[in-house]
Input
Amino acid sequence: MLDTLLKTSPIADLMSKLAGLDQPGGDPRTKQIVQRIVGDLFQTIEEFDVTPAEFWSAVSYISEVGQTNEGGLLVAGLGFEHFLDLRFDEKERLAGLEGGTPRTIEGPLWIADAPLEKGSARLDQDPEPADVLLMHGQVRDVDGTPVPHAVVDVWHANTKGGYSFFDRSQSPWNLRRQIETDAEGKYKFRTILPAGYGVPPDGPTNKLLKALGRHGNRPAHIHFFVSAPGYRKLTTQINIAGDEYLHDDFAFATRDELIPGVTRNENPDAMRDAGLNSPFVEIEFDFALHHETDKVPDTVVIRAHAPAA
Ligand code: BEZ
Ligand code: FE
Output
C-alpha cells in the first residue's frame, strides 16, 4: 500500500499544497521542512497502519505536553537534545577543533540572571540535611592558559531532585549562582550534594517513557555554562560518581570525561579551614574553553527559558 497510495497524484498534490509549495509567499525553508516532516508522518501512518483512534490519541498527547509545559523534558528523553550536541561535536571535529571540556545538554531548568559573585560563592540557601560539597577549579583555554573573569553559571537540584523556581518549596535562586573567575581563572563554591532529577511521575513524558519500557531518571549532576569574551560558550554538566543512574540517564547526557572524583574529607584541620564542623565532600574540576572561531556555528543557543518568577 505504501508504494501505491503515497505515490498517487492526489497525495503528491496534497503534500505540495499543505506545505504551501504552490504559494508565492511564506518562508521557503519552513515549507521544505514541513513537507518532509508531514510526508514522513504520512509514511509512518501507512507503514504501521495507524488507526484513527491511535492518531487522535497522539494529537491529545501533543496537546497534553503543551499544557503541562513538558516539551523540554520530552525532547531530552527522546534524545533530541543529545543529538544536537553530537551534531555540534561533529562540526567541531570536522573543523579541526580539538580538546576542550566536552559539552552536554543544558536541559530545561536554567534561569537567567542568577546572582553574580566574584571568585567564590555559596549556593545553598535553604537548610536541608545533606552532605556539604566544596567544588573548585580553574577555567583555562585549550592550551592551558588561565581565563580570568570568565563567568561560571552553575545550577543544580536539591536533595529531592528539585530545582528552585520550578519547585516552589525552595527559595528563589537556591542552588543557582554565577561566579566570576579570579585573576588566575579560579572559581570555587560551597553547596550541597544534589540528588538526581526524575520527570513528574504523572506527566505525559513519563507516560511515553513507560510505554517504551523506560524510566525518567537522571543521575545526580551539576550544570554549568562557562563563558568569557573571545571564547566559545561551554554548556556542560558534571555527574556525581556512584549514582545508580550514572550510565542510565534518561536524557543521555553522561560523558566519561564529566565524572570527576568525589573525595570525602574527614580531616579536622581541613574541616576547620573550610569553616565546617563535620566531614564534607570535595570535587576539583577544571574547564577548558575553545577560542572563538568562525569555522563552526556559535555555541550560544537561543531557546525559550522559564522566567525568574
Ligand atoms: C535536568 O537537567 O535536570 C533535566 C534535563 C533534561 C530533562 C529534564 C531535566
Ligand atoms: Fe539538571
